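Record passed on underneath.
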Amino acid sequence: MLGLRGRAAGLVRGHRWAAGPTLVSTAASGIAAATTLVVARGAGASAFGHFTVVLSIALIVTVAMLTSLHYVMLQELPRAVPGERPALVTTALAATLAVSAGLAALGLAAAPLLTSALNVDVPTLAYGLALAVSMTVNQLADGFLRGLGRFALVARLKLAVAVAYLGAACFCLLVLGIRDAEPYLVALIVTNAAFAVVATAGAGVRPRAFSARLTRSLYRHGAYVTAVAALTGLLFGVDVIFLNHWAAPADVGVYSVYNGFPKRLLGVVFTDGVLLVLLPRMATADKPVLMRRIARLVPAVAGVTAVFSFAASTVFFLLMGGEYPYSTGLTALSALGIGAHTAFNLYSVALSMDGVRGARVLIGCLLAGTPVALAVPAWCIRWHGLAGGLAGFALANLLLLAVVAVSAARVYLKDLS
C-alpha cells in the first residue's frame, strides 16, 4: 500500500508542472466553446450552418497545408541542441507558408470544380481556404512552443486569443447586430493569425537558417502522420459536407450544435491533456502493456464521454432558443457517436506513439474502414437528413473503433501471451 501511495505521489509531483497550463488551456477551450454558442444563438441556425460548412472545409484543407509538421516539431525540437533549433523552426515555417499559399491558389483556380462538388459558392470556398491558412500557421506555431517546452506561454496565448475572439463576437452581435457568418469567420481568421505571429516571434525564426535539405527530412518524417491525418480529416469532416448537399442550411447549424460543437470541445480538452501529460508516458511505455491497458479503459472512456456529452448538449440546447429544437433521442445518438469517437482517438494517439509500426497499423485500420465509414453517413444523411447524420456518425465511429481494437489486439496483445 505504501509503495502504491509513493508511486501515486511521484506521479503527481512529476506532472505538477502541467497542472497550471492544463487548467489555463481548458479555460481557453471553455471560452472558445462559449463563443461558438454565442455565434450559434445570435446569428441563427442558417448562418451558423454556413459558418460550420466553412470550418469543415478549412479543417480538411489544413491537413494538406500543415502536413503534420507541428507533430514533427513536438518530436524534433526537444531532441535538438539549441543551435539546431532555429533551422528547424525557420525551415518548417517557410515550407508551410509556401505549401499553404500554393494550395490556396490552386483551390481558387479550381473554384468552378470545387464549388460544384461541395455545393458552395466562391466566397464560401475562399473563406474556407483563408481559414485553413490561419489554422495551419496557428497549429504550427503551437507546435513550436510546445516543442520548446513553453507550455505556460502557449496556455496564456490561447486564453488571450479566446478572450479576444469572444469580445469580437459579442461586439458584432450586441453592438452591430450582425447576423451573417462572414464577420465571425474574419474574427476567427484574425485571432488565429495573431496567435501565430506572437508565438512564432518567440520561437527563434532566422531567415538565413532555412535549409532545403532539412525540408526534405521534415516532410519525410511527417509522411505517416500526414496519411493518418488526411484519412481522419476526411472521415470526420465529410459529414457536414454531405449534410450541406442533402439538407437545409439550418439543419447544418443544428447538427453542429448536436455533434460538431461538443466533439470539437471534447477534442480540444482531450488533446491539451494528452499533449501535456499522457504523450511522454505513452512514448516511453511498453507498447503491448499500453495497448492492454487501453483496451480495458475504452468502455469506461466511451461511457464517461457519452454521459458528459449528453449532459453538456442538454444544457447547450436550453441556452440556444427556438431555432435549435431539442430532442432527447437525437442527443443520445450524438452522445453515442462522440463516446465512440473519443475511444477511437485514444487508440489513435497510442498507436501514433509507436512510430512506424503504430502508424502502419492505424493507416491499415483507416483504409479498411474508410469505404464503409463514408458510405454509411452518406446514405443515412441522404435519406434521413439531420437524424441520419447523427446515426451515420455513430455507426461509422463504432465500426472504426471495432476495427482498430481488433487490429491492435492482434498486433500487440499476442506479445503478452
